[in-house]
Structure formats: structure tokens, C-alpha cells
Design goal:
Shape: globular
Radius of gyration: 19 Å
Distance between the termini: 33 Å
Low-confidence stretches: none
Mean pLDDT: 88
Number of helices: 12
Order of helices and strands: HHHHHHHHHHHH
Number of strands: 0
Number of domains: 1
Helix content: over 70%
Largest sheet: none
Length: 274
């Protein structure tokens, strides 16, 4: 693997890290970057490329786990945590309830999604439609939300947010954009919706990544390792910065600035590619 391959890995890792948990669609950005860096496919096989996408996603997952490590620790089925959950803390069962809809639909329609929805056209539709949903959520948001903290999320809200997460099965919509919008529409503060979104995203992403790694383990060859490692480290660093920055500012800037960015991005891509 030459220097150019490492540079490509770092760039793709940066894109993944900055966009995975921001409401701008990491899948959409990765599809767009894949087209821009098409020549990089000369550096590695399609199998290694697919493995690389899983590896950099794991870098992003590790970053959010570190940022929210206390929350994830409290979800473990330990005795002290069970007592704490009874006192009004977010419990593991509410997270599971939120995951159920996307797990079921993802399992049923995985092949259809992979075959028909991963294209430039569908991503552009998702970017714009997701932006509209985010603007609507901001317009409907209350100055005094009913749910200020993620600890106040009910089972009903968790399930309904899980339904909003299903929208993100369409590439370009963004898991964060869809679920945070859903939470806000349901009466949650932007920060509470973001916290629940990130917590809910980790297990479903980790499970999907683990399955992909098992299928592609043979491609972790000495030649490919520097490429994979560079992408992982790059994605981890930039996801860590992105998540911390986003969680500190989301209650102030809300979703509309990200929606505007998505619309501008979709317009630029349409002009350049079509």
C-alpha cells in the first residue's frame, strides 16, 4: 500500500467521522466520496473496500462510546444500575424498544435496499427529504419541551423514535437526522433527542458491523492493514471531535442549519454530476 492509499484512507475516515453522528447522512456522503475517489479502487479490491467501510464505522462507534461512556455503563445489567433505573434513569429496555422497528424492517428489506437504494439519485432524494423533515421538527419544537433529559423518555416515545429511525434505511436521510427530528416532534428537547439517538445507534451499528467483519475477516491481510488502520484512526479522531461539538451546540443551533447544508450539498452535487 503506497502513500496515496493511506491519504485516501484518511480522507474517507475524516468524512465518516464527521458525518456518522451528525444529521447530514454519513451513507450519503460516503457514496458521494466513493464516486469522487473512484480511482482509489485501483488500490484495493472491492472486498477490501467493503471491509474498510465497516472498519471506519467501528472507529466512529468507538468514539461515541467513549464520549457517552457513563450512559452506556449505566445501561449494563448491574445491580446498582437496576436500582438506579428504577429511580427514573434511562433503562436498557427502552433502548431495545427503540431498536425493534429498524431491526425488523432492516432484516426484511436488506437485500432490496442494497440493490435498489444505494445510488446518487436516491441519496439526493434522501438529503432533501431529510432536510425538510428537520426543518419541520424545528418549527414544531417547543420552547419548553416535555422531555428535557433522556432519562425522561417513555416506552411509547422510544418506540415511536424507533419508527422514525426506519426512515434512515433510505440512504441520505440520516439516522441522526431522522431520529432527532422524531424525538423533537414528540416533545423532546434537541439535546435529549440527540442523546437517545446516539445511544440507540451504537448497538444496531455495532451488530451490523460485527456481522460484516465476520464475513470479511479474510481480507485483513498485511497489505491491507495500513489502509484499514489509517481509516479507523482517522474516523475515530474526527468522530470524537464531531460528537462532542455537536452535543454541546445542538440545543443552540438546532437542526435547521444542518438542513440548509443538506439542501445546498444536494444542489451542488446535482449540478456537478447531472
Amino acid at each position: 500500500m503506497d502513500l496515496w492509499g493511506i491519504i485516501v484512507a484518511i480522507i474517507l475516515g475524516i468524512v465518516e467521522g464527521l458525518t456518522e453522528f451528525a444529521p447530514v447522512s454519513s451513507t450519503g456522503h460516503m457514496i458521494l466520496v466513493d464516486d469522487i475517489w473512484l480511482n482509489s479502487k485501483e488500490l484495493y479490491s472491492e472486498e477490501v473496500a467493503n471491509t474498510f467501510k465497516v472498519v471506519i464505522q467501528l472507529g466512529s462507534i468507538l468514539a461515541v462510546v467513549i464520549v457517552l461512556w457513563r450512559r452506556f455503563f449505566e445501561l449494563l445489567p448491574l445491580k446498582e444500575n437496576l436500582n438506579r433505573n428504577q429511580e427514573g434513569r434511562l433503562g436498557l429496555m427502552k433502548v431495545i424498544v427503540g431498536l425493534i422497528p429498524a431491526i425488523i424492517l432492516g432484516f426484511l428489506f436488506e437485500d432490496y435496499i442494497d440493490e435498489y437504494l444505494f445510488s446518487m439519485n436516491t441519496v439526493l432524494i434522501g438529503l432533501v427529504a431529510g432536510a425538510i423533515l428537520m426543518i419541520i421538527a424545528d418549527r414544531l419544537s417547543s420552547k419548553t419541551p416535555k422531555v428535557e433529559s433522556v432519562d425522561q423518555v417513555t416506552y411509547k416515545q422510544a418506540f415511536l423514535i424507533g419508527l422514525f429511525q426506519c426512515i434512515a434505511l433510505w440512504p441520505g436521510f440520516s439516522r441522526s437526522g431522522s431520529t432527532i427530528s422524531g424525538g423533537v416532534i414528540l416533545g423532546m428537547s434537541h439535546r435529549a433527542a440527540a442523546d437517545f439517538t446516539f445511544i440507540m445507534a451504537v448497538p444496531i451499528m455495532l451488530g451490523a458491523s460485527a456481522l460484516s467483519l465476520l464475513k470479511n475477516w479474510e481480507y485483513f491481510t498485511p497489505d491491507a492493514f495500513p489502509f484499514l488502520a489509517a481509516g479507523f484512526i482517522s474516523a475515530f479522531i474526527f468522530a470524537y471531535v464531531s460528537v462532542r461539538f455537536f452535543l454541546k451546540l445542538i440545543h443552540r443551533i438546532k437542526l435547521t442549519p444542518f438542513a440548509i447544508y443538506r439542501i445546498i450539498l444536494a444542489a451542488v452535487v446535482y449540478v456537478v454530476f447531472f
